[in-house]
Amino acid sequence: MTIIKSFTALLLLTFSIQAKAQYFKVSPIKETFEQSGEYNFPVLTGKTPAQNLINTFLQGKELDVLPGKHKISIFENVRPKKGSNQGVTILTYKVLVNTPKLFSVEINSEYTNASLNEYSAINNFDSQTGRLIQFSDLVTKEGYEAIRQFIIKSRKTRLSTYLKTLKSSASKDESVITTYSSCLLEQDKDNLNLDDLKFQKNALYLTRRSCSGSHYFQAMEGKTDIYDNMLTYKFLEPYLNEYGKCLLAAAASKCTVPQSQILRKGVFKGKINKLYPITLLVTYIGEDTFQASYFYDKYGKKTELRGTINQDSSLLLKEEPNYDIPKKQEFFKLKIQQDGSLTGSWNDGKNTYPVELK
Length: 358
Description:
By secondary structure, this protein is α+β, with helices and mostly antiparallel strands. The protein has seven helices and 16 strands. The chain starts with a helix and ends with a strand.
């Protein structure tokens, strides 16, 4: 009991001082364009490896550019082009945590395509390494599965209750009922690493994305609390691994990042044929597919990739086709190493060269 109280006290101490202890200096870049919109984006000032990785991931993912590789404006690749109304029109951020252990930032944006859409994402980084933190990093393998089953059961209960309400409504919409009935059947496949993870004073807050992918449904879900789960640190304590305990409680010690032979979201740097420096960003990982992009460091131009995770854990990444510019698709064949690095080959339809990425 004394240990539990001490652990809880450390947690409260860690998060009670985070508002005062700003570990990284964050200098926002603000720009306003009369024909597009307002933009405000965080840049960590400093040249430590961790800061470089954080800036690279955020700018590569949200702005389609590598740090320092823009021509005129850091927002030039995402804001609407002249004569077009398609692109990001509003971009803001909020630093949620900024301590020697954890840097957490929420990115919010509005963008236009066929319609006006909203987007938000929380990115959590280990402040010492710059590595992205996902929920499974904090708990044991058994703990992750136990919590996953607990959350799935909770969400299925709330979704079932919501479905009953929809079906009994005088103005029921059959298309909405059909969508959420399908969602209920798919709930058992939930991957908690796809949830937004928010570190709060005495709890972790997990929010699942809408299974429908529709902003219309997301607006309704926001009112019904279907996919939100608050996990107190007291609840989490039996399931935390050593890294999780260190990250959340040991304010003064250095946490050792666990290594594992699985694909992770984040930044990978290396060379093609030991000659051409590239940066690979992995931004989304599903059950057997993932999304990524890569840049030649010299030019900073983004190439979108779609990836497949094979049964032997090898990876195949293919360039997204550009029908406006016919060309042979580039592709990577990679293998995950024990330390999480990637090795394999790159091919442009004519030449094949070795690749090493860490």
